[in-house]
From TrEMBL:
Record organism: Streptomyces griseorubiginosus
Molecular function terms from GO: ATP binding; protein serine/threonine kinase activity
Database matches in Gene3D superfamilies: Phosphorylase Kinase, domain 1, Transferase(Phosphotransferase) domain 1
Protein name: non-specific serine/threonine protein kinase
Lineage, top ranks: Bacteria, Bacillati, Actinomycetota, Actinomycetes, Kitasatosporales
EC number annotated for this UniProt entry: 2.7.11.1
Enzyme class: transferase
InterPro entries associated with the record: Kinase-like_dom_sf, Prot_kinase_dom, Protein_kinase_ATP_BS, Ser/Thr_kinase_AS
Key words of the record: ATP-binding, Kinase, Nucleotide-binding, Serine/threonine-protein kinase, Transferase
SMART domains hit by this protein: S_TKc
Length: 334
């Protein structure tokens, strides 16, 4: 136990200079709710990597552990320009680790905190890259489940036409799929609920369309500085994802084309079947709404949206009343 603790929760400087598996730790890059990420040296290939050490209790959770080994294997098999390449995933001294490409730059969370909302063309460029990564993952049968700004790494691009190059990371590494009560069984917070799809909350099966929802929340934030739903507490936020209509984005940031409203309304539909069927088609719809191009596919999208609106209205009639405060949804996926 002492060894586990020293690997994960020791002071950052304690691990610097030490060897973990076949990596020598050089510097702490950052830490999230369930992992610490270091810049490290791969001693076998003599190259710099990002080494992610996951919190020890995750290694003791069989559901997480099985998904970790399955999904890191699938993620490692996807060769895509916008997915962080995974070099190795394993376990040492009771701690799960992932070695991956070190991405020099920032992540979208830091970028938004520093710069505020991005200009529409920049947001659309970044969105298109992330969308292509998500769609590629879905084609491999992999659902990300935790699309959020912190999992989108932004590096310098190749030239002025491509000022940034983004990478999606952390496939299947979310504790949200283990518990959405806000806390895991060992009392650790699961992280932000700003981007979680209604079907994840209610414990229904998830597929790529849950990432369409999370991704739409992220794009909303890159354009306005905040996700579509903002509530005072987690229960109200979970409720809003499931039942509240998202506010029109053009009202959140004056100057945005009003055509974007319908596109977000569709991507954020409560029922997965009512959303765009891929992340790239969501971005294509954003592009045409932004440029005022209302060609045949945009017309078809409007018809589909109108149909979806009717279904939402029908569902609204049978909508249950909000649960009392104590009735917290507990979600456990197999
Ligand atoms: N491959 C990488 N190269 C460079 N930096 C990385 C890499 N992967 C993650 N990071 C950075 O490491 C930090 C911690 O990442 P981590 O995934 O642990 O936390 P998070 O995604 O911000 O939060 P959460 O715990 O909720 O997932 C982030 O600032 C991220 O930008
Ligand atoms: Mg992360």
């Amino acid at each position: 136990m002492a060894r586990e603790t020293s690997l994960f929760s020791g002071r950052p400087s304690e691990l610097v200079g030490r060897q973990v598996a076949s990596y020598r730790i050089e510097q702490e890059i950052g830490r999230g709710g369930m992992a610490v990420v270091y810049r490290a040296r791969d001693l076998r290939l003599d190259r710099t990597v990002a080494l992610k050490l996951l919190a020890p209790e995750l290694a003791r959770n069989d559901t997480f552990r099985n998904r970790f080994s399955h999904e890191s294997r699938v993620a490692a098999a996807i060769d895509h320009p916008h997915i962080v390449p995974v070099f190795e995933a394993g376990e040492t001294d009771g701690v799960l680790y992932i070695a991956m490409r070190y991405v020099a730059g920032s992540d979208l969370r830091h970028l938004l905190d520093r710069q505020g909302p991005l200009a529409l063309p920049t947001a659309l460029r970044i969105a298109a890259q992330v969308a292509s990564a998500l769609d590629a993952a879905h084609e491999h049968g992999l659902v990300h489940r935790d699309v959020k700004p912190g999992n989108i790494l932004v590096a310098r691009g190749t030239d002025s036409d491509h000022p940034e190059h983004t990478y999606l990371t952390d496939f299947g590494l979310t504790k949200k799929s283990l518990s959405l009560t806000g806390f895991t069984t060992v009392g650790q917070f699961v992280g932000t609920l700003d981007y979680v799809a209604p079907e994840q909350i209610s414990g229904r099966p998830v597929d790529g369309r849950c990432d369409v929802y999370g991704f739409a929340c992220v794009v909303h934030e890159t354009l306005t500085g905040h996700p579509p739903f903002r509530r005072d507490d987690d229960m109200a936020l979970l409720w809003a994802h499931q039942y509240d209509e998202p506010p029109a984005i053009s009202r959140s940031r004056p100057g945005l084309p009003t055509g974007l409203d319908d596109v977000f309304a569709r991507a954020l539909a409560k029922t997965p079947a009512d959303r765009h069927d891929s992340c790239l088609s969501f971005v294509a719809a954003l592009r045409s709404a932004a440029t005022g191009d209302h060609g045949p596919s945009a017309a078809a999208a409007r018809v589909a949206y109108a149909e979806a609106a009717v279904r939402v209205a029908q569902a609204e009639e049978t909508r249950p009343k909000p649960p009392p405060h104590w009735a917290r949804p507990v979600v456990r996926e197999r």
